[in-house]
Amino acid sequence: MGKSDMVLVFHAQKSGLSRLKMDKVTMNEVSFQMPDGVYTVFPIYSGGFVLRFEKHLERLEESALALGFIIKIHEYWLRENIRKAFAFSGYDNCKVQLIVTQIDPSGVYIIIGSHETPEPAIIVENKMAEVSKYSLNYWLPYIGSFFWLLSFSFWVVLWFLNPYSTEKVPNIITIPGVFMAIFCLIGVAVSIRRKPVLMALVSILSFFPIGWYLLFSPGIFKIIGWLNIVCFVISLFMFYSLRSEKHEIAKIS
Question: What is the DSSP letter of 39?
C-alpha cells in the first residue's frame, strides 16, 4: 500500500494528540470501527486552507444536540490538533473526517486520507467570486476608486476651471495641492487592491489639515472634505468585509 493510499487516524484528547494504528484502508472502514457519534468531512487544500471551517463545527454541534449530547471542544484547540495531524501526514491536499463520540464529547477522532484537487487558489477565488459579486463587498474597491477619482477631478477643477477665479488660468497650483492630488491617485490604487488600512491612512492624510479646511470653506470645494470622509468610511467597510472573508475561508495555522 503506497503512501497515497494511507488513511491516518488520530485521537485528540485533553492529554494530547495520539496516532492510532488501524489496518483499514478507507475512511468508511475506519469510521465503522468508531463508537457512536457525529461526524463531518472536508478537504484541506495545499497550504492548510479549509473552506468554511466554522460551518463544519456548527454541523457537528447541531448533530450532537439532535442525538442528545453537547460537544465540549474549543475551536482553537481543534484547529491546533488538525494542524498537527495534517503536518504529520505530509499530504499537500487531504480529506479529513472528524468524529466526536457520545462517550467522549471532549475529544475528537481525526481521520486523514489523500485527496487530489485542483490548485486551491482557483477553488477559493471562483467560490468567492460566485458569492460576492452580487454583494456590496465585491463593489467596495470600485466604489472607493470612484470617490477618489471624483476627489481628484475636483482638484483639477480647482486648478484650471476655478469658477471663483477671475483669471483665465488661476495661479493656484501649490505644493500641498499637488500632494493632495497624488494622495487621490494613491487612494485609487489601494482601493482597487483592497488595502483598507492604507486607504484609511491616505484618507486621514488627505483630510488633515487641507480637507478639514475645505470642509468649512464656502463654495463647491467643500465637497473635497466630504469625499475624504466618505473614503475613510469605505475603508472601514472594506476592512470589515475582509475580516468576514477570512472567517469564510479559515486557515489552520
Answer: E
Instruction: With a cut of 70, say whether residue 250 has pLDDT above it.
Output: no
Task: Select the CATH number that applies to the domain covering 3-126 from these four: 3.40.50.300, 3.40.50.10840, 3.30.470.10, 3.30.70.1230.
Answer: 3.30.470.10
The residue type found at 184 is C
**Quick one: cell of 175?**
505644493
Tell me what pLDDT residue 167 has.
Answer: 64
| DSSP per-residue string spanning 2-29 | -GGG-EEEEEEETTEEEEE-----SHHH
pLDDT in tens, 95-130: 999 999 999 999 999 999 887 655 444 444 434 333
* Residue 121 grid coordinates: 487558489
Task: Determine which helix (DSSP H) or strand (DSSP E) holds 83, and give its type and residue range.
Answer: helix 75-89
Record the cell numbers describing residue 182, joined without a space. 497624488
CA distances from 247 to 3, 26, 55, 98, 229 (A): 32, 31, 10, 20, 28
Residues in contact with 4: Cβ distance below 8 Å, sequence separation at least 6, in sequence order? 114
d(CA 112, CA 10): 8
Which of 70, 66, 77, 61 lies closest to 12 in space, CA to CA? Answer: 77
Cβ pair 168, 252 in contact under 8 A: no
Its pTM surpasses 0.70: no
Read off the C-alpha cell for 126. 471562483
